[in-house]
Amino acid sequence: MFPLARLFAVLCLLGFVSANTATAQAGAGPSDPTPMRSIPAGEYEPLFSAPDTPKQVSVAGFQLDERPVSNRQFLEFVIENPRWQRSRIALLFADETYLHHWKSDTALGTELEPYADYPVVNIPWYAARAYARWAGKRLPTQAEWEYAALASETSANGREDPGYHQRILEWYGRPNLGYADQTPGNFRNLHGIYDLHGLVWEWVEDFNTSLTTGESRGDTSLERKFFCGSASVGASDFKDYAAFMRYGFRSSLQAKYSVNNLGFRCAKDLPQANNSAPQ
């Protein structure tokens, strides 16, 4: 009987997780939604790929928020969805730093009010995902985010632009002192997307697959290679240190973590007729 009881408990837990992560009413959304831009279908080469897999990854066309979700927008979400307020959220879905910089469950406070339109941070993956559903959207996949973030102001592949890596490294190397130091910038890439680099880290839907190959022994080897001194061996672009930083950061996360420079933006599918990658 014990194995059956244990199985039942696991199924109940999974049901609980599913129910809670789908709590927000789909499609309600903020009164002042973030404009979205269409990203055309294409291909990109991930920093790492599993052995015997294609080097190029096809990405279907999709839409992406111009800017990260703001404090003001997330405040509207928690007011309409009380179970995602910091004093009411289940401990399974957030750590103790969830929105700790806000004055209360439903108020930013006078200190934070000047930063209401700055990116919301101290947000776990569960809450970001629930917000996206409420807004009638979703989180971007890692492939979508990396593909969109590859673009410079003039090229879909910023690696072709002189100084591309250096500029991103300068952004990433600047100390980030929290929400008051996260001023939205004016860098707008070829797709019309702002601040994918240098403002805040951003959640992606599949953040916990950054360094997995699907086979346990292969995963162990990949992670060891990534974190040792020869981490660039096997990488598609050994000069892309910023990508190493992103992959390393994502691999360190758990879905309930809240970090003072980690926010998110939302994505959305394009109509089927427009979102296929070129052959």
Précis, in short:
With 279 residues, the chain is of the alpha+beta class. It is built from seven helices and seven strands; from the N terminus they run H-E-E-E-E-H-H-H-H-E-H-H-E-E.
Question: Would you mind describing this structure in some detail?
Answer:
With 279 residues, this protein is an alpha+beta fold. Helix content is 29%, strand content 8%. The protein has helices spanning 2-21, 71-80, 125-134, 142-149, 164-173, 216-227, 241-251, and strands at residues 36-39, 42-44, 57-59, 62-65, 201-202, 262-263, 267-269. A 3-stranded antiparallel sheet has the order 1-4-7, with no helix packed on it. A two-stranded antiparallel ribbon has the order 2-3. The longest helix is centred in the first third of the chain and has 20 residues, at 2-21. Residues 1-22 and 212-236 have low confidence and may be disordered.
Which descriptors would you attach to this protein?
alpha+beta, two-stranded antiparallel ribbon, 7 helices, 8% strand, disordered N terminus
Percent in strands: 5-15%
Structural class, by secondary structure, is alpha+beta
Q: Count up the helices.
A: 7
What gap, in angstroms, lies between the N and C termini?
54 Å
Outline the low-pLDDT stretches. Answer: 1-22, 212-236
- Could you report the average pLDDT, rounded to the nearest whole number? 79
Task: State the total count of DSSP E strands.
Answer: 7
- Largest beta-sheet characterization: 3 strands, antiparallel
C-alpha Rg, in Å? 19 Å
Strand adjacency order, main sheet: 1-4-7
